[in-house]
Amino acid sequence: MSEQARDIGSLGRGQQRLGARSQAEASVAHHLAAVYRLSDPDLVELSLDQLLKELVGRVQEILSVDTVAILLLDESRRGLIPRAARGLEAEVELAIRIPVGRGFAGRVAAQRHPIFIEAVSEADVVNPILREARIASLLGVPLVTHGQVLGVLHVGSLRPRRFTDDDAALLQLAASRAAPAIERAMLLDDLEREREDVVALQRSLLPAAIPAFAGLDVAASYLPASDVIGGDWYDVVDLGAGQVVLVIGDIAGHGVRASTRMGQLRMGLRAYVLEGHRPADALTLLNRLLHSLGQVETATALCVAVDTTSGDVEMASAGHPPPIVIDRAARYASVQPGPPLGAVSGFRYRSSHDGVGPGGSLVLFTDGLIERRDAALEERMEQLRRAAEAVAPASAEQMIDALLAAMGVDERASDDVALVTLRRIRGTP
Fold first, then answer.
1. How far apart (Å, rounded) are the C-alpha atoms in residues 84 and 129?
2. Distance between CA 301 and CA 340 in Å, rounded?
3. What's the confidence (pLDDT) of residue 339?
């Protein structure tokens, strides 16, 4: 047997194994109170750090101990990292890594069994904080859920204390209640970090700023979904000589893959319009590009070219909702949509023409603004049209805020939303 195997399977000097007796053999009233405190449904709403902090406080009260600490396995699952503590705050601050199978907490994790140390000063412990804090006695149990060890929960006393099998049973009960909540919070934290990474990637692939145009007021906004991030995107391209191109689109799919593809399409379409291609030709070339990448994703897109002097509008749609044109009234522009990008190889898109007068506005949006499971699409589109008509005199930035509010869209939205608004300033020729 290897030295490491003997180390994991045996106890260190001064360590004793306790056989946690059943709940029926312990104080039933005390156990029921512990179950109630550790089964509080409010705990599932907490983040991981909040949950751990709350758990160590409740465990300290339940067992009337001086110290409580929760250590969780690191990504390698070979070491334990202190994450929350009462009376051992320095353990968390210094983040001392405890190898699994070594010392006190390491053996609790390796053996998956409660371990009691009556005299810490004479025992095999590898964490110097335990001695520096002058802890006299320790009791630790594993945090286990679905057969997997998540970490270790241990408590301590500053005076010598003979922790009993009843104490071990109660602490193990606390651990069995805490472990699923910790696992859930860890998962949610991982998902939130992943979401934040995707949002950061998504934002980095969108325009850093909107150009300023003589005679125009232009604004844009991207609002990520509350859970799974999609591939909504927009762009505003200054062609010079009074020409501006507005683009908005939506990639099928979610996450990093959708964001990456969005960045490719945005850059591709920007390059085509900068080369002088009109909206329909630019979408035709972008469709060819998407097929050449050999992927199955599809995307909707709307490309709108505006002459800032005349107000003439030329647009082409690849399966995207039409823009709203606002003069005295608000209406959806008449644009002939083609299939989404990537759906039909070799498709040639067609342009439609419209116009926006001085003081008039354009609103481009993705379907996250209008789609709701509990409302018909036609009703939502009419609701948006009325809202656009009501905010017509506002600035481009104010229009975005007003439209999001009118459609009930905020940071809790279930789908991404992108918006681009353009307003011709009155008095412009």
1. 14
2. 7
3. 96
The residues, ordered by sequence, that sit 6+ positions from 60 with a Cβ below 8 Å of its Cβ are 67, 68, 86, 87, 155
Query: Would you state the structure tokens that stand for residue 348, as one six-digit string?
Result: 């040639």
Any domain includes 331: yes
pTM of this structure: 0.62
173 shares a domain with 101: yes
**What pLDDT score was predicted for residue 226?**
59
Q: Residue 79: what are its φ and ψ, rounded to 5°? A: -140, 155
Q: Three-state SS for 331?
A: strand
Q: Which domain covers residue 284, as residue numbers?
A: 206-424
Q: For residue 146, what is the domain's CATH number?
A: 3.30.450.40
Element of type H or E holding 137: strand 137-145
Tell me the C-alpha distance between 290 and 231, whole Å. Answer: 15
Report how far residue 147's alpha carbon sits from residue 293's, in angstroms, rounded to the nearest whole number: 44
Regarding whether 396 and 247 lie in a shared domain, the answer is yes
- Please tell me the predicted confidence (pLDDT) of residue 140: 94
The Cα–Cα gap between 422 and 307 comes to 12
Domain boundary among 196, 220, 254: 196
Q: What's the average pLDDT block by block, 10 residues per block, for the chain (429 residues)?
A: 51 70 50 64 78 89 90 90 86 81 92 92 85 90 92 94 89 87 82 66 73 92 73 92 94 71 87 96 94 81 95 96 94 94 94 94 95 90 95 87 91 80 77
Residue that terminates a domain, selected from 159, 174, 196: 196
Is residue 92 included in any domain, yes or no?
yes
